[in-house]
Design goal:
Chain lengths: 438, 280
C-alpha cells in the first residue's frame, strides 16, 4: 500500500505538472498605469521600448531609424526588443505582458492587420488620433487606404508601418520559353489558359504557380481570387463565404488543382527562388529577399483583376495601459519612424509599401523606383488596393479559420459545404466575441 | 516540517496555477481582455459537441501511443546493442543521445530538409528509384507520420540512456546462471532481462507519455497543426491555438483541464497496473 501511495503521488504530481505549463498563460491582468522611466525634455519619458518582429528582415533599417531619432531627440533612447519571429508571436508576447502589470508593457508594438483589432476591441491600444493631435502632429499625409485600415469606432489604433500587398512574381525566362507576353495575367481565367503552356515548357518536375498553404496565409492571397469572382469572405460583419460567387472562386481554385498546375507550399518563396515554380503570389515584403536569393531574372506584376488587391502587413501601435508620459514619447517615435524620410528608407530596404503620400514625390524614392522596376510595380499597385474582409482580419482567428477551409477546398472537399461551415463558425465568433463589445 | 519548503513551492508553482486554470475554464476570457465572465460549463459542452474534437483526440492518442511504444522499443534495442563491448560504442552512445538535448524547434526546422516534397532528402532518395515523395505537409496522414517520426528521433536518446543505465545495473549473476542453464538469447532476454527492466519500463512509460502529450515545438515548427486545420493538431496544440490565435483563453483552459484529467486517469491506471504486477 505504501508503494502505491508513493507512486500514486508521484504520478499525480507529474500529471499535474503538465497542466501547470498550460496554465502558465492563465491570469487576467490588471490595467494599472505604467511608470515613466525618467523624463525627457519637453515632457514624455526618456526611454521608448519597441517590440518588433523586424518584418522583412528589417532590423538593420530599424536600427538606423532609431539612431537618427536619438540624434534628433537627445533626451529619449529607444530600446529595440525582439518581439518574436512573426506577427503572431509578437501578439502572443504582448498578450503575456497584458496579463501582468503595466511596467511590463512596451511603449510601441508592431501590430499586424490580423492582430491589432482584438487589442483595440478590448481597449488595450491607445487611439493614435488623440495622441497625434496632442503632440501637434498630422495624419493626413498617410496613404488613406493604409491609415483607414486601423479605424474602429471613429478612432485609429495604429499608424501604418510595414505595409504590404500581395504581388504577382514570375520567372521571366520560363515566361519567355512558354511564349507568353511579358506581363502578368489580367484575369485568373487568362492564367488558366496560360498554365498548360507553362507546364509544357517547364517540365513535369516544376509547377506553373506556387501558393502558400492554409497555414501560411493562403487566406490572404485567395481574397484576390474571391474578389475577382465577385465574392468575399464577408461584407462588414456578415460572413459571405457561402455566397455563390465566393463558392465559384473556390471551385476555380479546385479546377487549378485538378489541372495539376498549382502547388501549395509552406515555403512558396523559397520554392520560387529555387526555380521550382514559374510564378507565385507573395507579399511585396518578400521583394528584397527574392531579389537577393533568386539566381534568375524575375519580374513582378499586378494581381489578376483590376482593383482587387488586398492590403496587408503591419502598423505600429501604442498600448493603452502605459502612462501619459510614456505615450508622449511613444507617439513622437512612431511618427518619426513613419515619416517621409524613414518610410523611404524602410521601403527601399525591405520592399514594403511607402506609407506616406509625400514619399512618392521624394526624389530619392523616385530614383530608386526607376532603378528597380519590380518595386515600382508594387508601389503602383498601391492605388488598386482595398481593405481586407472583416472575416479575415477583424474576426478573431479568421486567418487560420479561412486557411483551414481553403486547405479543405484544395484537398477536393465540397466547396459549398466547406464554405457554409466556415460562415457558421465565423458568425459564431462574431456573435460571441465581437458584437457584445461593439 | 522538512516537507514544508517543497510543499510551498509545489503549491505556488504547480497547484495554484492548476486551480486557476480550472477556474478560467468556466469563463469566456479573451486573453487580451482585462475581464472574464463566468459562463458555467458552456466551454465543456462545446468541447464535447465540436466536430474537430474527435480528430484532435485521435491525433493525440495516435501520436502519443506510437511515440511511447516505438521510442521505448528502439531505445531498448539500442541500449542492448550498445551495452555490448563494441569498438567506438562511447561515440555512438553520445550520437544517439545528442538529439535529446537539441531544441524541438531546431529539430523541426532541420527535418524540413528531410521531408520537404520539393527539395528534401526523402524526395531525392525516392526520385533515384523513380518514385514520388508523398507531400508530407499537405496530406494529414503523412503530416502526422512526419511529426511522429521526428519526435521519436529526438526522444530516442532519452529512452536509450535510461535503459542503458538499467542494463548496466542489472544482476550479472542471473546472466551467468542463464548461460549455465543453456538459455537461448531470446529466453535470456524474456525471462532474465525484461523482468529486471520492469521498473525502468514503468518509469519510462509514464515520463515518455507525459512528455509526448506535451509536444508543441516540433508541431509548431513543422505544420502549425495543419494541414486541413487539424491534421496534426493535438490537445496541447489546441490549447495554444484557442488561447493565442483565437484569443479564447477560457476555452483553451477548458482543453487544458480536460487534458489534465485524461493524463491523471491514464497515470492512475498505470500505477494500479504496475502495483498489481509487483504484488503477483
Amino acid at each position: 500500500m505504501d508503494k502505491l501511495t508513493r507512486r500514486g503521488f508521484l504520478g499525480l504530481a507529474g500529471a499535474a505538472g503538465v497542466a501547470t505549463g498550460l496554465a502558465a498563460c492563465a491570469g487576467t491582468g490588471s490595467t494599472a498605469t505604467g511608470t515613466a522611466s525618467g523624463a525627457a525634455a519637453g515632457g514624455g519619458s526618456s526611454k521608448v521600448i519597441w517590440w518588433s518582429n523586424h518584418p522583412g528582415n528589417s532590423k538593420e533599417a530599424e536600427q538606423k531609424i532609431i539612431a537618427a531619432f536619438q540624434l534628433a531627440n537627445p533626451g529619449i533612447t529607444v530600446d529595440l526588443q525582439d518581439g518574436g519571429k512573426n506577427y503572431e508571436e509578437l501578439a502572443q508576447k504582448f498578450n503575456g505582458a497584458l496579463a501582468g502589470n503595466a511596467a511590463q508593457l512596451p511603449d510601441v508594438i508592431v501590430a499586424s492587420d490580423v492582430t491589432w483589432f482584438n487589442f483595440a476591441l478590448n481597449k488595450q491600444l491607445a487611439a493614435v488620433d488623440d495622441l497625434m493631435a496632442a503632440a501637434g502632429l498630422k495624419t493626413d499625409d498617410y496613404v488613406d487606404a493604409l491609415y483607414s485600415d486601423y479605424l474602429f469606432n471613429g478612432k485609429h489604433y495604429a499608424l501604418p508601418f510595414a505595409r504590404s500587398t500581395p504581388l504577382f512574381y514570375y520567372n521571366a525566362e520560363m515566361w519567355k520559353n512558354a511564349g507568353l507576353e511579358d506581363r502578368g495575367p489580367k484575369t485568373w481565367q487568362e492564367f488558366k489558359e496560360w498554365a498548360p503552356k507553362l507546364q509544357a515548357t517547364i517540365g513535369s518536375d516544376k509547377i506553373p504557380i506556387i501558393l502558400a498553404d492554409g497555414t501560411n496565409y493562403l487566406d490572404w492571397y485567395f481574397q484576390n481570387m474571391a474578389w475577382n469572382f465577385g465574392g468575399a469572405f464577408s461584407k462588414e460583419w456578415t460572413p459571405t463565404a457561402s455566397d455563390p460567387k465566393t463558392i465559384e472562386a473556390g471551385k476555380f481554385l479546385q479546377e487549378l488543382v485538378a489541372m495539376k498546375v498549382v502547388k501549395f507550399s509552406k515555403t512558396p518563396e523559397a520554392d520560387f527562388q529555387a526555380g521550382i515554380a514559374a510564378c507565385m503570389l507573395q507579399s511585396t515584403g518578400a521583394l528584397g529577399g527574392t531579389t537577393k536569393n533568386s539566381k534568375f531574372a524575375f519580374k513582378t506584376a499586378f494581381l489578376p483583376g483590376d482593383g482587387n488587391c488586398p492590403t496587408g502587413g503591419a502598423g505600429v501601435a501604442i498600448p493603452a495601459g502605459i502612462s501619459e508620459d510614456r505615450k508622449k514619447s511613444a507617439i513622437k517615435f512612431v511618427e518619426f519612424l513613419t515619416n517621409t524620410a524613414n518610410t523611404v528608407l524602410f521601403t527601399q530596404a525591405t520592399g514594403y509599401m511607402p506609407v506616406r503620400k509625400s514619399a512618392l514625390d521624394d526624389a530619392g524614392e523616385k530614383a530608386f523606383l526607376d532603378k528597380n522596376p519590380n518595386s515600382k510595380v508594387a508601389v503602383e499597385q498601391l492605388a488598386k488596393t482595398r481593405s481586407q474582409d472583416n472575416a479575415r482580419v477583424l474576426v478573431q482567428g479568421g486567418g487560420a479559420r479561412i486557411g483551414k477551409s481553403l486547405d479543405q477546398v484544395a484537398a477536393g472537399q465540397d466547396v459549398a459545404s466547406v464554405f457554409a461551415a466556415l460562415d457558421k463558425e465565423t458568425q459564431g465568433v462574431i456573435d460571441a466575441q465581437i458584437k457584445p463589445k461593439l | 516540517m522538512l516537507l514544508l519548503p517543497n510543499l510551498a513551492l509545489l503549491t505556488t508553482f504547480v497547484y495554484r496555477p492548476l486551480i486557476d486554470n480550472i477556474r478560467l475554464s468556466f469563463t469566456d476570457w479573451n486573453i487580451s481582455s482585462p475581464t472574464a465572465n463566468v459562463i458555467g460549463t458552456a466551454n465543456y459542452v462545446e468541447w464535447f459537441g465540436r466536430e474537430d474534437t474527435r480528430q484532435i483526440l485521435t491525433n493525440t492518442l495516435v501520436f502519443t501511443f506510437v511515440t511511447v511504444m516505438v521510442s521505448m522499443a528502439i531505445g531498448l534495442g539500442l541500449a542492448l546493442l550498445l551495452d555490448q563491448k563494441l569498438r567506438g560504442r562511447n561515440m555512438v552512445r553520445s550520437l544517439v543521445f545528442a538529439p535529446f538535448v537539441v531544441s524541438g524547434a531546431a529539430i523541426g526546422v532541420a527535418f524540413q530538409f528531410v521531408f520537404d516534397p520539393s527539395f528534401g532528402l526523402i524526395r531525392d532518395v525516392m526520385a533515384r528509384f523513380g518514385a514520388q515523395s508523398p507531400d508530407f505537409y499537405q496530406q494529414p496522414g503523412w503530416a502526422l507520420f512526419m511529426v511522429t517520426v521526428t519526435y521519436i528521433w529526438k526522444n530516442l536518446g532519452y529512452t536509450f540512456v535510461i535503459y542503458l543505465a538499467a542494463l548496466q545495473g542489472r544482476r550479472i549473476d542471473l546472466d551467468e546462471a542463464a548461460e549455465i542453464d543453456g538459455a537461448t538469447p531470446w529466453t535470456h532476454f524474456r525471462k532474465v532481462l525484461l523482468p529486471q527492466l520492469r521498473p525502468t519500463t514503468f518509469f519510462l512509460s509514464i515520463t515518455v507519455l507525459l512528455n509526448s502529450v506535451q509536444v508543441f515545438d516540433i508541431i509548431y515548427a513543422m505544420t502549425r497543426g495543419g494541414p486541413l486545420g487539424t491534421g496534426t493538431t493535438t490537445l496541447v496544440f489546441q490549447v495554444y491555438q484557442e488561447t493565442f490565435i483565437n484569443y479564447r483563453a477560457g476555452y483553451g483552459a477548458t482543453v487544458a483541464t480536460i487534458m489534465f484529467l485524461i493524463l491523471l486517469t491514464i497515470t492512475f491506471i498505470q500505477v494500479r497496473v504496475m502495483d498489481k504486477g509487483t504484488k503477483t
